[in-house]
Amino acid sequence: DGLALATLVQSVGHISGAHVNPAVTFAFLVGSQMSLLRAFCYMAAQLLGAVAGAAVLYSVTPPAVRGNLALNTLHPAVSVGQATTVEIFLTLQFVLCIFATYDERRNGQLGSVALAVGFSLALGHLFGMYYTGAGMNPARSFAPAILTGNFTNHWVYWVGPIIGGGLGSLLYDFLLFPRLKSISERLSVLKGAKPDVSNGQPEVTGEPVELNTQAL
């Protein structure tokens, strides 16, 4: 998954930001870095893309080896509360990595954005696979649930990542590296209007992110 996401960021990051994850899009919305309309369209596309991809996989995979299409499930010894907490922290670290590496205020002094994001996703999977299957992406969890008709504890894979994404956005934009925007500027972004430049720094308005993908 990490290598797949790194490839997507490298390939189409300059076009859409390569969110491919409703929790990431929600984090950018919470940080007032994209409009409500754009966020809705992104999330709809992510869910439709996930279901379409899973449907293709379902149709070309022999029934004997199809299984449950890697449906995210909780370990029997893990409660729903524990699982939600795990998903919160897994997505929190992932969103923090994305916000830090995508931040245009770093003036391009980065290594590979694509690899950093891919490694962050891989790290989350290595830690969380045993507990929850490491959802971290509601669209990824939604697609196999739809095709298999199994929604047992499915809410965990929405609530955890959405909360984690929102917390990651607030932590980065208001504590670690504050983005100085007035309330009116934030509202203008949410409504789709382009805000004024503040303190000489260009503000992100939900447009595609310019990524520095030059490896060290």
TrEMBL record:
<dbReference type="InterPro" id="IPR034294">
    <property type="entry name" value="Aquaporin_transptr"/>
</dbReference>
<dbReference type="GO" id="GO:0005212">
    <property type="term" value="F:structural constituent of eye lens"/>
</dbReference>
<keyword id="KW-1133">Transmembrane helix</keyword>
<dbReference type="GO" id="GO:0070161">
    <property type="term" value="C:anchoring junction"/>
</dbReference>
<keyword id="KW-0813">Transport</keyword>
<dbReference type="GO" id="GO:0015250">
    <property type="term" value="F:water channel activity"/>
</dbReference>
<dbReference type="Pfam" id="PF00230">
    <property type="entry name" value="MIP"/>
</dbReference>
<protein>
    <recommendedName>
        <fullName>Lens fiber major intrinsic protein</fullName>
    </recommendedName>
</protein>
<dbReference type="GO" id="GO:0005886">
    <property type="term" value="C:plasma membrane"/>
</dbReference>
<feature type="transmembrane region" description="Helical">
    <location>
        <begin position="113"/>
        <end position="132"/>
    </location>
</feature>
<dbReference type="InterPro" id="IPR023271">
    <property type="entry name" value="Aquaporin-like"/>
</dbReference>
<comment type="similarity">
    <text>Belongs to the MIP/aquaporin (TC 1.A.8) family.</text>
</comment>
<feature type="transmembrane region" description="Helical">
    <location>
        <begin position="39"/>
        <end position="60"/>
    </location>
</feature>
<keyword id="KW-0965">Cell junction</keyword>
<comment type="subunit">
    <text>Homotetramer; each monomer provides an independent water pore. Two homotetramers on opposing membranes can dimerize, forming a cell-cell junction. Interacts with CALM; the calcium-calmodulin/CALM complex interacts with the cytoplasmic domains of two aquaporins, leading to channel closure. Interacts with BFSP1 (via C-terminus); prevents calcium-dependent inhibition of the water channel activity.</text>
</comment>
<feature type="transmembrane region" description="Helical">
    <location>
        <begin position="80"/>
        <end position="101"/>
    </location>
</feature>
<comment type="function">
    <text>Aquaporins form homotetrameric transmembrane channels, with each monomer independently mediating water transport across the plasma membrane along its osmotic gradient. Specifically expressed in lens fiber cells, this aquaporin is crucial for maintaining lens water homeostasis and transparency. Beyond water permeability, it also acts as a cell-to-cell adhesion molecule, forming thin junctions between lens fiber cells that are essential for maintaining the ordered structure and transparency of the lens.</text>
</comment>
<dbReference type="InterPro" id="IPR022357">
    <property type="entry name" value="MIP_CS"/>
</dbReference>
<dbReference type="InterPro" id="IPR000425">
    <property type="entry name" value="MIP"/>
</dbReference>
<keyword id="KW-0273">Eye lens protein</keyword>
<keyword id="KW-1003">Cell membrane</keyword>
<feature type="transmembrane region" description="Helical">
    <location>
        <begin position="155"/>
        <end position="177"/>
    </location>
</feature>
<keyword id="KW-0472">Membrane</keyword>
<keyword id="KW-0812">Transmembrane</keyword>
